[in-house]
Model the fold of this input.
Amino acid sequence: MKERPMIRRSAALLMAVLLPVLAAAAPRLNFIRSIPPLHPLGGERAAILYAMGDSEKIETFLDELTDHANRAGTLKMENAVEHHQHMVSATTDEATLRRIRRDHPADVYLGINAFTCTMTDHSGEGSERDSAGERVKRHHVWTDAVCSARIDVLDASAKKLLSFTVRGEGTSPRVSEMTPEERGIALEQAARYAAISAAESMTPRRVRESIELDDTAPSFHEAMAMIDAERLADARAILQTAVRQHPDSAALHFNLGAVSEALGDLQSARDHFHEALRLSPAHPQYRSELDLFRRRNEKLK
Done:
């Protein structure tokens, strides 16, 4: 019972310290943006018809490629090689193509070519603890692995649409004596990362972004209430009404640029970020956020 006043005083002191920090926390707009794939396939379904290479880790590559692409949620990929190889080219007869399209319906077809892995051995001095807990020097060996492949993308008539290469790297644990198990670890990593690289180059990536808003803008609190409720379109409508009444408010243009970007209207976002900086050229946040916007959306004209 005697300790309760001390607990209450400690809690009050803690709140006195935290309240100014919480009050000073800047309001932010958090959103997810989608980055287009490096090699868009032009469809939602893909099937891997064949896979050729000189390493048994091609099986790991195929499994990881299929799994990672499907987990992205924007592309459904089938590993048709699990059944049997479907070698196709521009000279493949129409009857074979019809059978493939019937058995493995897809918008595009993939062929994995020249899958190969190489290893480079290394050695050097390291240290580890002995049985007594003392750190002693040891001679360590390890290996680095690289797996690469060429991926051909074909349409339903076996016409090549595009071709690109992928690679992945892996490394083994550092040990006193290299064994096939350690080499297998490096190869497994390299094949897996090559597959992930391939999948990510064919599927959009989702990236979380966060923009600090300007709470000095007119109608800020009304718009922020909509943002907190995840009603971005309503927040934008509030800001658009406000900017018609206060066209010279740099803060309004800045917040409207942020909301427009979160909604995917990049042209409007760029225009409002530019206008905010034009109205307030000395404002460091407006300049830095416009630079970040350009980096996030380099392809915007």
About this structure: The first helix runs from residue 4 to 24.
